[in-house]
Amino acid sequence: MKILRVIPSMNPEAGGPCQGIRNMVPELSKLGHHNEVVCFDQPDAAYLGKDSFSIHALGASKTPWSYNKKLIPWLLNNFKRFDIVVIHGLWLYQSHATIKAILQYRNSNNNSPKVFVMPHGMLDPYFQKAKERRLKALRNTFYWKIFENKVINKADGVLFTCEEELLLARTSFPNYKPKKEINVGYGIQAPPSYKTSMQQAFKAKVPDWGEKPYFLFLSRIHQKKGVDLLINAYLKLESELKELPQLIIAGPNNHAYGLEMQELAKKSKNILFTGMLTGDAKWGAFYESDVFVLPSHQENFGIAVVEALACSKPVLISNKVNIWREIENGNSGIVKNNTSKETYELLEKWSKLSILEKNEMKQNAFKVFDESFTTSKAATQYIKGINKI
């Protein structure tokens, strides 16, 4: 099977969808399925040219909608090479353009690829209800009426990473009538085995690390992720306990919200910001940590959550991380609501666990990863799902 993936950017700093592609494609290749990507990156971008699959970079898009005049002609010239086209994400030009192009192509071609949409959580009702997103919510309502309802309803199916995402998507917009909803699952490649070079690389990035296990937040530093809840909870607990592990916050932070969070964290010398971590430094961050924390207000899947599990690290998460049921059922972490009070309770409860209880959760963490979130299981489920159409 030949699969084309359409996505605005393959820049790792863009977040989960492009990393999900990078995780899944190698496993699909083992099963004999060919994958290519078309995106709006500059062809000479530093993060391109390192993947095992072809990425067709059409150059930078224009306008906040990410308009790119090259996409539709490129798709019309290349549809014939593919059996499946997957649109990754909504609300930008690539989704509208792909549906427009496939409808045009089908007018003159009997054999055309099936087209699926993978929203990556972008149909979650959070995005329409969050106070800080009022303008974007209005924009989404307008886009839904004009563009996106056609994308969803005219595609051959909509692909979801978990059952929670599928159910939530039904609650956000009127006239939501997809031809087929498919839970294809999601997974990550097993992390590299621990090496001392990982610890060294991490230490080089975080010289103030005390070389003891710590609370780890590793994700985009964004209002959606509940970073303020985490910092305030840590500050409160630190004032109550004589000794508390360091809190290390890893992610791109050279933007307004990142700077705001660094200012908030100045009240404690034990909260450290690392910037974005990659390679050995990233895996060192996971392996050297005590526990992973993500009190997110909305998380479609949470690749970093699963990466932590794969490194045998328990996770402290909100119940707005859509895989929270697997975490709770597998006793591989602690789940609370995404409030100030309950984020504090996440840290407090973990701090009061015995060494035996923590070690049991660590063993369970890898077990949950191995049973539910490996790329091999996800790839098999993915192909089985799209073959239903």
Which terms summarize this structure?
Rossmann fold, alpha/beta, 389 residues, 2 domains, 7-stranded parallel β-sheet, 6-stranded parallel β-sheet
Walk me through what this model shows.
With about 400 residues, this protein is an alpha/beta fold. The protein folds into two domains: about 1-190 and about 375-385, Glycogen Phosphorylase B (Rossmann fold), CATH 3.40.50; about 195-370, Rossmann fold (3-Layer(aba) Sandwich). The protein contains 15 helices and 13 strands. The chain has helices at about 15-30, 70-80, 95-105, 125-130, 135-155, 165-170, 195-205, 225-240, 255-265, 280-290, 305-310, 325-330, 340-350, 355-370, 375-385, and strands spanning about 1-5, 35-40, 55, 85-90, 115-120, 155-160, 180-185, 215-220, 245-250, 270-275, 290-295, 315-320, 335. It has a seven-stranded parallel sheet, with helices on both faces. Strands 10-9-8-11-12-13 form a six-stranded parallel sheet, with helices on both faces. Helix 3 (about 95-105) packs parallel to helix 5 (about 135-155) and helix 7 packs across helix 10 (about 280-290). The radius of gyration is 21 Å and the shape is globular. The model has no long low-confidence stretch (mean pLDDT about 95).
